[in-house]
Amino acid sequence: MRFRSPTRGLLSLEDVAADILHERAANPGADYRLIIGTDSQLRGNGTTATFVTAIILHKTGHGARYFVRKFVHEHLYSLRQRMFTEAALSIQTSGLLMEYLQVDSHDPTPPNQASSPDWHIEVHLDIGERGETKQWIREIVAWIEANGYEARIKPNSYGASTVADRYTKH
Question: Is pLDDT of 109 > 50?
Answer without folding.
Answer: no
